[in-house]
Design a protein that fits this description.
Blueprint: E1 25-36, H1 39-46, H2 55-68, H3 70-73, E2 82-93, E3 96-107, H4 112-130, E4 138-148, E5 155-156
Antiparallel strand pairs: 1-3, 1-4, 2-3, 4-5
Helix pairs in contact: 2-4
Length: 168
């Protein structure tokens, strides 16, 4: 038996879920993602020699900013008063950069979209900063690792599905 989609009404129309009657609870979501670069781009990035500057620092700030603006980018996403956003961007070996994000709030709906938006924006920022050297970076996978709070409680991705999962 499949769970009905919450963002579609009985007639197939898109809708923003009404969360007005939900309890305010502590919410948290953790996501991560990767970008694979050419050897030249990866080495240049790690050595801090990109012409555009420190890609890791810029990507970290892009991720934080994006988490705060998820509702502007995703049409049915609620604006949420975030209480914390942490984004870490680091070389992960094998010519890959890892982005990890944790987003927190005390609100009526979860922050999964904000965490995933933070990761994706940070990865796109790395892409933008290395594209002069590497025309074909590959982004992915991007995934939700954990969520806490609300009616559905806790959820954690199975260890074999996550590449690392833990905070760097």
């Amino acid at each position: 038996m499949s769970t009905p989609l919450t963002h579609i009404d009985a007639h197939g129309n898109a809708l923003m879920v009404d969360v007005g009657d939900k309890q305010i609870t502590a919410r948290e979501a953790i996501a991560e993602g990767f970008i694979t670069l050419s050897a030249d781009a990866y080495d240049t990035l790690c050595a801090g020699r990109l012409k555009k500057g420190d890609a890791l620092a810029v990507a970290q700030l892009a991720g934080i900013s994006a988490a705060k603006r998820a509702a502007e980018l995703i049409p049915l996403c609620h604006p949420i008063p975030l209480t914390g956003v942490k984004v870490l961007v680091e070389p992960a070996g094998s010519q890959r950069v890892r982005v990890w994000a944790r987003v927190r709030c005390d609100w009526r709906t979860g922050v999964e979209m904000e965490a995933l938006t933070a990761v994706t924006a940070a990865l796109l920022t790395v892409y933008d900063m290395v594209k002069a050297i590497d025309k074909g970076p590959v982004i992915g996978p991007v995934m939700l690792l954990e969520k806490r709070g609300g009616r559905s409680g806790e959820w954690r991705r199975e260890a074999e599905d996550a590449e690392t999962g833990s905070e760097p």
